[in-house]
Write a structure and sequence with these properties.
pyruvate-formate lyase- activating enzyme, five-stranded mixed beta barrel, binds iron/sulfur cluster, OB fold (Dihydrolipoamide Acetyltransferase, E2P), 3 domains, 13 helices, Rossmann fold, globular
Length: 465
């Protein structure tokens, strides 16, 4: 076995784990190729957060079987970890990795020729482990092997300007629409020393920006994501870690992935203020601006707390970018509920909203809710939010036109561009000099547009002015 390919679906955590798989396979002597090049081993890192993601994952498996009929195919990620009948009989030489902790061992055995597809099923026999259920009761569950070799830490994040660094895994929050507590039930965090070592390695590999990632990032250092079970009901461990990470030489930018409002403690905001390399950008998932809907979603905050937190963030950071996720058409969402979402979005002045139309996810509580919203209503409400998103994005960026900002250069279909500190995209009008991907340069923002800002590269002399 000489070559491998990886297809990754889903979130930043999956993307991070695919890089771990790449590191492991390269250490085992394999060479990464594109899926079209008929690899000896094809890894499909799946997602099942929606039915569409599951369908896409299955499509990748079929495609790999068709493209490389002689390849060994390893299916890992979220889809094989839940038993909702969406991955029956994949057939052929396919290894399904149902227990994440078995992945490193399974890959090593497959590469050394010691495992066949049917062996991967026996690799799944496992010791009993405790997990927590929705109501907090502890149950015994056949789950992960504890003494299995782990996937390695990253020494680089290939193919990306920004490197994702997973520091936390798992969620036992059971939001009623979400399948993640079934795919990643174990809440755990990487020790600070290991995280710092990995961040240092990524910087040495040339990454200027690290996006700190987790399934429930605000629960870093905790054994559950349920705040009511935390001592003091607050958590400063993420801030402690960031304080140290920000001191890593040559780490120009640190960004955080998603947080909930209560995760943004005064201690965390102090950390943001203290370190210039922590970007003034927070992604806070709102999901809905209505308390009634938030309650049905089993979220851990109310709309009022969300509003207060935004005020406190704005009072301490300079024009921070606050981005969010919103679900439209959750069962029972009335026009009045939706209006509250719209009003909250306007008041918050989100720099960007990711808008999702609700679709029931088999295996979750919300899938069985009766008071569904008509598809035409969902479509209309989504359109209203999409229009608002464009308006709010333009308004947010407009305040920076005429100012200078720093961007991390990337190449978007031949167009030079880069993310600013506040995450909006800046397209370079004409660079005038050759710029390398992953270079940090200062630009003057001269115009605004629906897709981002337009900037002009400043010369070194202009920097000094
Ligand atoms: S907090 Fe809620 S939405 Fe986020 S992963 Fe956990 S269950 Fe899913």
């Amino acid at each position: 076995m000489k070559t491998f390919s990886i297809n990754t679906l889903g979130c930043k955590v999956n993307q991070y784990e695919s890089q771990q798989v790449r590191e492991l396979l390269e250490r085992l002597g394999l060479h990464k190729v594109e899926p079209l090049k008929k690899p000896d081993l094809a890894v499909i890192n799946t997602c099942c957060v929606t039915h569409t993601a599951s369908a896409k994952s299955r499509q990748y498996i079929r495609k790999a079987q068709k493209l490389s009929p002689d390849a060994v195919i390893v299916v890992c990620g979220c889809l094989p970890t839940v038993h909702i009948g969406e991955l029956n009989e994949p057939g052929g030489n396919v290894h399904l990795i149902s227990y994440r902790n078995n992945l490193a061992a399974a890959l090593s055995q497959i590469v050394s020729g010691k495992a066949t597809a049917s062996d991967s099923q026996s690799l799944q026999s496992c010791s009993d482990t405790i997990i927590r259920t929705k109501n907090g009761a502890k149950i015994k569950c056949k789950n992960e092997l504890t003494n299995q070799p782990k996937l390695p830490q990253l020494t680089s994040f290939t193919g990306k300007t920004r490197a994702f660094l997973k520091i936390q895994d798992g969620c036992d929050g059971y939001c009623s629409y979400c399948i993640v507590p079934q795919t990643r039930p174990f809440v755990r965090s990487n020790p600070a020393e290991a995280v710092l070592q990995e961040a240092q390695a990524l910087v040495e590999a040339g990454h200027r920006e690290i996006v700190v990632t987790g399934v429930f990032l605000g629960a870093y250092g905790q054994e559950t994501v349920r705040r009511k079970n935390w001592a003091n009901q607050r958590n400063d461990k993420l801030a402690d870690l960031l304080d140290k990470m920000a001191e890593i030489p040559n780490l120009a930018r640190i960004r955080l992935s998603s947080l909930e409002p209560a995760d943004v403690t005064s201690r965390l905001l102090d950390t943001f203020c203290r370190h210039r390399n922590i970007m003034p950008h927070l992604h806070l998932s709102l999901q809905s601006g209505s308390d009634a809907v938030l309650k049905k979603m089993c979220r851990q905050y109310k709309a009022g707390e969300f509003r207060e937190k935004i005020e406190s963030i704005k009072s301490q950071l300079d024009r921070p970018a606050i981005t969010t996720d919103i679900i439209v058409g959750f069962p029972g969402e009335t026009d009045a509920d939706f209006e509250q979402t719209v009003n909250l979005a306007k008041d918050a002045g989100f720099a960007k909203m990711h808008i999702f139309s609700f679709s029931p996810r088999k295996g979750t509580a919300a899938a069985d809710m009766q008071d569904t919203v008509d598809n035409r209503v969902i479509k209309r409400r989504s359109q209203i939010l999409h229009n608002l998103n464009i308006k709010l994005g333009l308004k947010y960026r407009q305040q920076f036109v005429g100012e200078t900002t720093e961007i991390l250069v990337e190449n978007n279909n031949g167009q030079l561009c880069g993310r600013s500190e506040r995450y909006f995209m800046v397209y370079l009008e004409k660079a005038g000099k050759k710029l390398g991907k992953n270079e940090l340069v200062r630009v003057k923002l001269i115009k605004n547009s629906e897709n981002g800002a337009i900037g002009q590269l400043l010369t070194n002399r202009e920097f000094e002015l």
